[in-house]
């Protein structure tokens, strides 16, 4: 789903990451244990991540269970209930992740680099957000953003492995298409601006020093992209 740090505002920074955590906490028919148990019984690897530009939910399973596992993934994608008690527990998990980030010098250096290039907007925002935001997010905050961003025109579904296009299409028709509403909101494309040459530093009592230097590169579609890759190595 095209919903990540780039599409957040200062007040909503971290919201999509929190929702990613809540996705596995219960649907209309299943609780968190049921969900985990069903995936485990199929031998499926299930996980999710939030990036600067997107949130992704993915699984890996043998072809024997492709229909059952995709049905379950679709259920949590469309029918998660956002239990408020579960949300409070998950907020504590996310806040602990934020605390752990403060002990990661490489991560701090990376965040400073993005801030140097993009300021406090779009790619300059931290994916995980901040403690104050996470503490204040409500069930309604999540539901309103899901209604806007988790829409058919803002979502990509991909399959890889021992499955045909026709099989994949049938799965999407059966478990996905009918779950989208017709009244979908327009999503504004964020304006990406790059700052002039700048420098940021953070002094902490670590046993190592991290230095990051960044400069504009070529597009992934550019004919010289291989040269850039070699330079990076």
Got a strand count?
2
Termini separation: 31 Å
Give the overall pLDDT as a whole number.
92
What structural category characterises the helix and strand content? mainly alpha
Low-confidence stretches: none
Proportion of residues in helical segments: 40-55%
Helix and strand arrangement:
Layout (H helix, E strand, L loop, with lengths): L14 H8 L9 H10 L3 E6 L4 E6 L5 H14 L4 H18 L3 H14 L12 H6 L2 H11 L15 H11 L49 H8 L1
Antiparallel strand pairs: 1-2
Describe the structure in your own words.
There is one protein chain. This protein is mostly helical and 233 residues long. Helices cover 43% and strands 5% of the residues. It is built from 9 helices and 2 strands, in the order ααββααααααα. The chain has helices spanning 15-22, 32-41, 66-79, 84-101, 105-118, 131-136, 139-149, 165-175, 225-232; strands spanning 45-50, 55-60. A two-stranded antiparallel ribbon has the order 1-2. A hairpin with a 4-residue loop joins β1 (45-50) and β2 (55-60). α1 crosses α4. It is globular.
